[in-house]
Amino acid sequence: MVVLTNAISVLDTAKALVPLDTAKGVLSTLSSILTVVKNTMQNKEDFAEIISRCERIAKCIKRSTCDRRTSEIDPRITQALDELKSFVDGIEKTLKEKEQRALTERAFSASVDQGCIAKWKEQLDYFLQCYNNEMITHIAVTVDQIRGANTMEGKSDEPDREPPPARPPMLFGRDTLVQDVVESLNSQHVVLVGPGGIGKSSVAKAILNEDSIVARFGDRRFFVRFDDINASQVTFDTFIGRIARTLGVRSNRLGSITTFLSVSNVLLVFDNAETFQDAASGADRIAEAIEEFGALLTVAIMFTTRNRRVPTNLQCAIIDVPALEPNAFTHVYHTNGSPVIIDKLLSDLDFHPLSINLLANVARDNLWTLEDLRRSWEGQHTRLLDLGGGKLQSLSVTIELSLTSSSSIQRLGADARHVMEIAAFLPQGLNERDLERLFPTIPNIRSIVDTLCRLSLMYRKNDAYTMLSPIRLHISSAHTDDDLDLTHARAYYYEQLAQVDGEDDGGAWITTEDANLERLLAHDLSRATSMDMGFICRACCQFIYQLIQHKPRPTSLRAVIMRLPEVNPQPTKFLGFFKYIRQPRSQNACLSGKAECAFYLALLADDLINATQSIDLYATAKRLFILNQQHDLAAWCLERMAAQYTWLGKISAAEDTLQDALTMRREHHILSSEDEARIKLRLAGATMFRGRLEETRVLLTSARLYFEDVNNTHYLSETMQSQGELELRSGNHLAARHHLEARFLLPTFMSNADERAWNLIFLSMVEVREGNFSEAQKLLEEASALASGGKHIYTACFVLFHQVALASDGGDFDLARDFLHRVFVEVAAHGGQTELAFATYYSARNELFAQEIQKARDLFSRALKSFDELSDMLDQVQCIRALGEITLLEKDFTGANMQFAKAKSLCDETGIHPDFLYNGPEHSRLKASHDGWKLFLEGHLLCS
After folding, report:
1. pTM over 0.85
2. Continuous segment of H or E residues that includes residue 119
3. Fewer CB near the terminus (10 Å): N or C of the chain?
C-alpha cells in the first residue's frame, strides 16, 4: 500500500510539471490505474513490476518534456506518447470493468490473472525501450552538434582503455534503485553502501549500461576494480596505477589522469572502495586525489563500498543498497512449490542477494524440491552458502574479507570479534543505550560498534545495533554456544528482568528485548545444573509473565522446558551469580521449576486464546506439582483447565474437573472460603451452559456475597459479568443491565480497557434484546475505541464481529462486509487461528441473512473445519446447526434432520444444553425464522 501510494504521488507530481496535454493524459491514466489497484485489487503484489514501470515512464516523460516549449519537443516523442495513451487507456478500461463487477457482486475486491499482468508489463517494457532509443538518438545528435569542429573524423588522441563491464544477466528487483542512482548522478556523486554480497557491484554495472548514462558519457564510462587486492597491498601508487590502466592513460602521474578526466564528461566507478579507503599507506593522499577528481565539472564518481566513510570535501549522495525482492529466488530456481516455504527461507536470509543466489543454485543443481531445500537449510545453514573458494561462490569468503582485510578491524583486535559474536547470539542485537553494561570490560565499545557499522558488518535498527542474518549465521557458525562468553550479557539481562518484574512500566524494555532474553533463557535452561535450575526457571516464569502483561505472543521455550529433568542430579557449580532472581521454595528445585514454567506457559496460552495447548500445559504442571507435594498449585491447575474446557464447550469435562479440584482441596485440607467461592463461580459457568439456570443463580449469589464481604474486586467483577449473562439468557433484561452497569462502579475495573470493552459488548446485547439498536451501536463504537488501544487483537476483533452481527440483523449486509474486511485485515496482520475461525463464522451468518445461501453454506463449512482444528465443540455445534437450517431452506428434510441429529449428539457428548443454540449471546444467534433446530428438538420437523 505504501509503494502504491508513493507511485501515485510520483505520477500526480509529474503530471503537474509536464507541458504536453498528451503527456498529462498518459500520467493521469497511469495514476487512475494504480488507484484502482490500490483500492480494489486483491492481488496487489502481482502488480509490483507494473508499478515500477509506471514510475519509470513518469520519469522519462518528465525528463524529456519539462522546461521545454511544445515546439522544442521531438515529434518522435509526441508520437510515442500517443501510442502509449491508447495502450494504457485499454488497461484502465479492463481494471475498471473488474472493479465494477466486484461491486455488483458485493465482493470485497477483484483480481487480474498473472498472465494478463505479464503481457501488460512486456508491452510497457517495449514502450520504454522504444522511448529511450528515441531519447538516445535525440541526445546523441545534440552532443555531436556541440562537439562539431572540435574532433576530426576517424582520428583520436586517446589510447586504448578498458571497456565498461556488461550489464549483469540476472538483476531483479533493482529497477527503482538504478533509476534513483541515475537521477542522483545528474547533480552529485554517489556512494552505494552495503555489506558484502548485497549486490553493490551488480547495481553499478547495471547503471553503467543504462541508456541515459550511455547517452551522457558514451565510451567514457570506467569501472575501476579493487576487489582483487587487499587493503594491506594498497598504496597511493597502486591506486593511481589502477586508474591509469583502466582509463588507458599511459602515464601514472596524477596530473595526466586529471587532464584526461577534464576533456569531456566521464563516469568513474570505484568498485570495492573500502579497499583503498583502508589503505596500508597513502590513504590521505588517495582521499585528496579523489576530491580533486570530483571537483572537475566533467566528472561524476560512483563508489561501491562496505564503508560509509567518504572523502570529506566530496559532495555525495550515500545510498544504501537494500535487500532483494523475494521473486529473485524463483528467477534462478523455477518451482511451483509453496510460497510460504520460499518466504520463510528468504526471510531467514534477510533477503540478502548473494545468499539467495547461492541457495537457489544449490536447489537447482541438486534437483531439490522446496521441502528438500527446507530440510537441508534447517540442518546445514551456512554450509549451503559456501559453494566455492571465491567471494561470489562463498558467503564465508565474502564476510571474512571484511573482517581480515580491514586494518580498522585488525586494530580493534579480539574485542571486535567478541562484540560481533554477542550481537550474533542476540536476535534483536545490542541495546544502544546499554552498550557499556553489556560490555563493561571493553572501554572503547562505542568506537568498536561505530567501526563495525561503518564497514557494513552491523547496522543500527531503531535503538539497537544488529546485523544481517547471513552475517549472523556466519559469525555463529565459527564457534559453539558453549564456547561463547555470556557472563556480562547474562548479568545484564537477568538484572533487568528482576527490576521490571511486577512493575507496570516494564513493558518498554521487554517489548524491545524479548527475543534476546528468550534466546538467553533457552540457552541457560538447556545447560543448567540443579544448583541453578530453580533460579533460571524463576527467571523464565518472570519473562513469560512480562510477555503476558506487555507483549502476548507464542514462545519457543516450551520445547526446552519440557526437556528439563524432573529429579535433582548431583549439585554442581554452574552460573553461580543469580543474586537477582528469587529462589523458589521447594524440596526439588528441578521439579518445582519445571512445574512453574509449565504453569506460566499455560497462562500465556490462555492469553493467546489457545485453549487446547493451555489444557495440555496445565495438565503437565498439575502432574509435576502433585509429584512435588504442591497440591494447592495442582488444584489451581485443575480450575484453570476447567475454564478452558468451558471455553471450548466441553461442559461435562469442565464440571468434572472442578469437582476434582474441590475434592483435592478437601482431601489435603487446603479448601479456604475464598477457594470455595471461586470454584462456585467456575461451576456456575458450567451449569449455565447445561441449562440449569436456577442452580447457576444460586452459585453466583453465594460467590458474590463472599467476594463483596472480603472486597475482592477482581472476582466480584467476574461474578457480576456472569450474573449479567445469566439474566440475559433468562430474559431478565433489567436485571442483566443492573449487574453489568454495576461493574463500572468498581475502581479497579475502570483501569482495564479490555474488561470495559467486553462489558460494553454485553450491554449492547441487552439493548438489542430491548430493541434499542442505535444505542447498541453506540456502545459497540465505544467498545471499539477501548479495544483499539488494548494489547489483545482478540478483543478488537470481537467488537468488530458484534458490529458485523448488528449490521446483518438490520439488513445492511454491505456494511457488515465492510466490518468483516477490517477484521480480515487485522487477522492477517496480527491475529491467529481462533480469530480467523470466528471471522469466517460471522461472514457465513451475514451471507445467510442476505440469502446468499451457497456462500453461507461454504463459509459455515470452512468455519466448522476451523473450529474442529481448535477442538472448539461449542462453535462446531453452532455451525452444524446453521448448516441444518440451510439444508432445511432447500427443502431437504432428510439432510436437515441428519445435521440436527449430529448437532444434538454433540450437545449430549459435551453437556451443552440444546436451548443454548437459540438462546445464546444475541450477536451470534440466528434469526427466529430459522426455527428448524427448535422444531427438531420438539419433534415437529417433518421428514418430507
Report:
1. no
2. helix 114-147
3. C
